[in-house]
């Protein structure tokens, strides 16, 4: 039995996405950082993980970049049960200092990037319903742990995530002296759009050059956790694959409810780290103050997170 405040939860009750009383209670209490009450996972939850993990093996072997495969081997995931975050961290921390940290769900943008700057990765602990393995609009533990975390064992990739976090601090610092509230909000929204888009087209849906001429491999977590899209992104003639260009990425809209029609290719994780350096320089030079607006502008919670951070700079 798990206890959360005055509430008790029965072992095996389930931590299924959108159907988890433990998470609902945490959200109602304003708890963003939580524990992983492992005993609450139901047999159906473990079965969903087993099925998700098993069906990705051949696809990872064929389409994933080598750093991801090395990370899988390092982390020693349990194939038949939802992983314990403490076990994941036991293998990951000694290599890059990164650790998975359980959260109740949505993390405002600044807090998310701030976690990365401290080598913490906000990790969802629920898992999708076994009757709908293919598509989930919300992140779940399979996306976060199997999709993201294997790359966190690579030093260059881990350093890139830390640099992402520092870019958010840079954005907050750059607007801290702006007195006009509307102008401050406009600049923040523009810089946040740029950060969000760069994260989407690299960390979430990035491609990397392979060893053979013209070959591409997947590394973005949205691809690594999707049974269908990992094939589509590399084999479909409908997908545009271009060498990454900062001007395109920071001004490119994206949508989340279908396979991505446009993807960008980096050379390696060292290249990705250098690109973030360029993003930070552009931010300081004011080049990200006027990126193309998009339908995925900052939410109210994201706006508040950056505004509050700017007041503390």
Beta-strand percentage range: 5-15%
CATH class: Mainly Alpha
Distance between the termini: 43 Å
Question: Average pLDDT across residues?
Answer: 92
- Round the Cα radius of gyration to an integer and report it: 19 Å
**What is the spatial order of strands in the main beta sheet?**
6-5-8-7
Q: Return the domain count.
A: 1
| Biggest pleated-sheet summary | 4 strands, mixed
CATH fold descriptor: Phenylalanine Hydroxylase
Share in helix: 40-55%
Q: What's the CATH architecture? A: Orthogonal Bundle
Order of helices and strands: EEHHHHEHEHHHEEHHEHEHH
Low-confidence runs of at least 5 consecutive residues: none
- Counted by DSSP, the helix tally is 13
Overall shape: globular
Main structural class: alpha/beta
Number of strands: 8
Within CATH, the superfamily carries the name: Aromatic amino acid hydroxylase
């Amino acid at each position: 039995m798990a206890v959360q405040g005055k509430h008790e939860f029965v072992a095996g009750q389930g931590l299924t996405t959108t159907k988890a009383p433990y998470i609902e209670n945490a959200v109602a209490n304003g708890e963003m950082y939580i524990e992983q009450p492992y005993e609450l996972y139901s047999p159906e939850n473990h079965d969903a993980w087993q099925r998700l993990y098993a069906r990705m093996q051949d696809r990872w072997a064929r389409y994933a970049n080598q750093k991801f495969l090395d990370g899988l081997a390092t982390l020693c995931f349990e194939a038949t049960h939802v992983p314990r975050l403490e076990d994941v961290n036991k293998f990951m921390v000694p290599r890059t200092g990164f650790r998975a940290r359980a959260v109740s769900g949505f993390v405002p943008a600044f807090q998310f990037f701030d976690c990365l700057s401290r080598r913490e990765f906000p990790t969802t602990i629920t898992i999708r319903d076994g009757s709908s393995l293919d598509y989930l609009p919300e992140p779940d533990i399979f996306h976060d742990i199997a999709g993201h975390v294997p790359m966190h064992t690579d030093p260059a990739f881990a350093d890139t995530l830390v640099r992402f976090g520092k870019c958010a601090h840079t954005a907050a610092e750059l607007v801290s002296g702006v007195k006009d509230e509307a102008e401050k909000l406009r600049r923040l929204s523009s810089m946040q759009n740029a950060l969000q888009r760069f994260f989407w087209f690299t960390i979430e849906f990035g491609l990397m050059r392979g060893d053979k001429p013209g070959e591409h491999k997947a590394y973005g977590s949205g691809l690594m956790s999707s049974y269908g899209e990992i094939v589509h992104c590399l084999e479909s003639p409908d997908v545009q694959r271009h060498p990454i260009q900062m001007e395109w990425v920071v001004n490119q809209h994206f949508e989340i409810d279908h396979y991505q029609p446009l993807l960008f290719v980096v050379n390696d994780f060292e290249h990705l780290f250098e690109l973030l350096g360029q993003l930070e320089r552009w931010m300081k030079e004011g080049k990200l103050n006027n990126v193309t607006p998009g339908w995925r502008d900052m939410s109210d919670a994201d706006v508040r997170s950056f505004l509050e951070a700017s007041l503390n700079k």
